[in-house]
Amino acid sequence: MSSPCDPSYARAGDVATAVMVMDSRLKAIYDGKGGSDPEQRRMADDFARSMTAADADALLDGVCTLIYMYMDWLRTVCERHDKEVIEHVVPTLVATMRMMPNTFRPEVIPTMAGLLIASGTGLSPNLWRAQYGDWTRAEMNPLEATAVILAEHINRMVGDDQEFATRLITDALAATDEA
Question: Tens digit of pLDDT for each residue in 52-90?
């Protein structure tokens, strides 16, 4: 019996913009600027103001798709080494979230962990989340940060290749375009 949270029922959203936002955040981290670059902040603010509600929904779905794709890739890698993705990835990422109290207030950590677990078990994170109501404003930054720390985890895992997670998605998008 198929689940109503099966990824085949989910909208992919704007994955291209989601990966650009995630990649921009990663580059800021790797450059040592974090979120403190005023030019980067201005461009992000301008971008956010230009978005319609439909654009924002598509971006939110795109971020959830990134989380799903990253957890799917991690699940495949873990299975090759007889490891369980939930056991291997989720505790590390939750520990990272707990060290970032300005981004991850304690009440959003269970939701972000739930997105990782849903994805790790093959469920759509956005459909899983939808069962509990609409996204809240308080969940937006943690959602973005979850995708970023997941990508950064993958980059470290493959030998500190700072662009691996981005290439993983852009290669998948390119393959989809060719099909």
Answer: 989 999 999 999 999 999 999 999 999 999 999 999 999
For 27-45, write each residue's pLDDT tens digit: 988 888 665 667 777 877 7
Q: How many CA atoms lie within 13 A of 104 on its CB side?
A: 21
Q: Where are the beta strands (DSSP E) in the chain?
A: none
Q: pTM score > 0.85 for this model?
A: yes
Phi/psi at 38 (5° precision): -60, -35
CB 139 within 8 A of CB 108: yes
Write the single-letter amino acid at 12. Answer: A
Instruction: Report yes or no: 97 and 149 within 8 Å, Cβ to Cβ.
Output: yes
Asked if residues 6 and 124 have their Cβ atoms less than 8 Å apart, the reply is yes
What secondary structure does DSSP assign to 77-107, as a single string?
HHHHTT--HHHHHHHHHHHHHHT-TTTS-GG
Give the CA count within 13 Å in the CB-facing half-sphere of 153.
23
Q: Look up residue 126 and give its amino acid.
A: N
Chain centre distance of CA 134: 18
